[in-house]
């Protein structure tokens, strides 16, 4: 089969590799669509893990083979598969901190080499503990390109559940890329007023389309004053940082009211440093929190939001690239234009 193999030092090479063999309790999927995630970009750009590896974890495809003992799925089923599933019995799982579970940290889907998701390949092996609890069938009429967004939607649903905004709250969302726009849709569904910021006018227009009450260029306006203006001087009730960058968390604090809840979602680098006033957190009684990865408790809810069309996630797909053009897709994701949002790799396509 063909796969995009990460060789290290930022190099992604499209080459031939063996189709992975499956064992008892496992599935072999033919990958039809796999989204390019920002975590994939970071691993490639900053060489975070040694090669060779095959990345890609927002995977949708067709079951082509089942291992002994598998009865819930059969060849021909269209499915999405999560690459992380927790044990549900450890210290962290008991507290629903699934992303901290040692089993969750193990990758359960591979196209070969060290398991790394494997979706940037034509076929993947889904391991038994993922098959038992981490696979969802795609209903008729839902495209693979839309279905592969269930995993990133789950991560956002998890963060919103944790943030727990009230209907009527003003939620300030920093960044309106694909993830920020999902947050805008979810906050609007929760009955909130959304104040969105992004540098790109095209993304600000989409934020308004998906329910934002205001979409503002943060380079052209004083966001703190605007947030105060939208809240009778209080400041935002909640903030979601859906993009990382110097000074953004500090801005989130200044734009929020006392007692606000601040969700850090994009701050995943150990090199990123934040300097805050202790008074703003302590005496201001603000709650600073983080959310990372997906929740098994929200898997069915997230799938239903995407499959039913209740969340217009499919409209975020701007580009679909064949596997041999994946480096073009990676480059576009690293340096987005006003017209680029979610980029999907289609491993069964091949450009001439």
* CATH fold description of the largest domain: Quinone Oxidoreductase, Chain A, domain 1
How many domains make up the coordinates? Answer: 2
Strand-residue proportion: 15-25%
Q: Mean pLDDT, as a whole number?
A: 96
- Oligomeric category: single chain
Which spans have pLDDT < 50 for at least 5 consecutive residues? none
Number of strands: 16
Order of helices and strands: EEEHEEHEEHEHHEHEHEHEHEHEHEHE
Highest CATH level, the class of the largest domain: Alpha Beta
Major β-sheet annotation: 8 strands, mixed
Radius of gyration: 20 Å
Instruction: Tell the overall outline.
Output: globular
CATH superfamily of the largest domain: Medium-chain alcohol dehydrogenases, catalytic domain
> How much helicity do the residues have?
25-40%
CATH arch. level architecture of the largest domain: Alpha-Beta Complex
Secondary-structure-derived class: alpha/beta
Can you walk through the features of this model?
This protein has helices at 38-45, 91-94, 128-133, 144-147, 150-163, 178-189, 201-209, 223-230, 248-254, 278-282, 299-308, 326-334; strands at residues 2-8, 11-16, 27-35, 58-66, 78-81, 109-110, 123-126, 135-137, 170-174, 193-197, 214-216, 236-241, 256-264, 287-290, 317-322, 342-346. By secondary structure, the protein is an alpha/beta fold. It has two domains: 2-148 and 312-346, Quinone Oxidoreductase, Chain A, domain 1 (Alpha-Beta Complex); 154-290, NAD(P)-binding Rossmann-like Domain (Rossmann fold). The strands form three sheets. Strands 3, 4, 5, 6, 7, 8, 15 and 16 form an eight-stranded mixed sheet that branches. A six-stranded parallel sheet has the order 11-10-9-12-13-14, sandwiched between helices. The chain is globular and about 60 Å long. The two termini are 17 Å apart.
């Amino acid at each position: 089969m063909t796969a995009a193999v990460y060789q290290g030092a930022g190099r992604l090479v499209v080459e031939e590799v063996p189709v992975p063999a499956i064992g008892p309790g496992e599935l072999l999927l033919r990958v039809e669509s796999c989204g390019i995630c920002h975590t994939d970009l970071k691993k490639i750009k900053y060489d975070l893990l040694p090669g060779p590896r095959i990345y890609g974890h927002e995977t949708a495809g067709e079951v082509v083979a089942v291992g002994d003992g598998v009865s819930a799925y059969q060849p021909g089923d269209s499915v999405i598969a999560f690459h992380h599933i927790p044990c549900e019995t450890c210290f962290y799982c008991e507290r629903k901190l699934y992303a901290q579970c040692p089993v969750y940290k193990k990758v359960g889907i591979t196209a070969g080499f060290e398991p790394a998701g494997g979706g940037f390949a034509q076929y993947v092996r889904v391991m038994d503990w993922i098959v038992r609890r981490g696979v969802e069938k795609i209903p008729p009429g839902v495209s693979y390109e839309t279905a592969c967004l269930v995993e990133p939607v789950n991560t956002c649903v998890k963060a919103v559940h944790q943030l727990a905004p009230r209907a009527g709250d003003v939620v300030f969302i920093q960044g309106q890329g694909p993830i920020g726009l999902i947050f805008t849709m979810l906050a609007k569904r929760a009955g909130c007023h959304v104040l969105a910021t992004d540098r790109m006018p095209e993304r600000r227009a989409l934020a308004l389309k998906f329910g934002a009450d205001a979409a503002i260029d943060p380079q052209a306006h004083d966001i703190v004053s605007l947030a105060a203006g939208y809240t009778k001087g209080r400041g935002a009730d909640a903030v979601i940082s859906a993009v990382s960058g110097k000074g953004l968390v500090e801005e989130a604090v200044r734009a929020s009211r006392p007692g606000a809840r601040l969700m850090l979602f994009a701050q995943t680098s150990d090199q990123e440093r934040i300097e805050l006033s202790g008074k703003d957190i302590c005496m201001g009684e603000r709650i600073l929190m983080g959310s990372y990865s997906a929740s098994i408790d929200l898997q069915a809810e997230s799938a239903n939001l995407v499959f039913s069309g209740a969340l217009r996630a499919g409209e975020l797909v701007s580009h679909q690239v064949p596997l041999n053009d994946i480096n073009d897709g990676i480059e576009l994701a690293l340096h987005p234009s006003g017209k680029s949002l979610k980029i999907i790799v289609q491993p069964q396509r091949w450009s001439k």
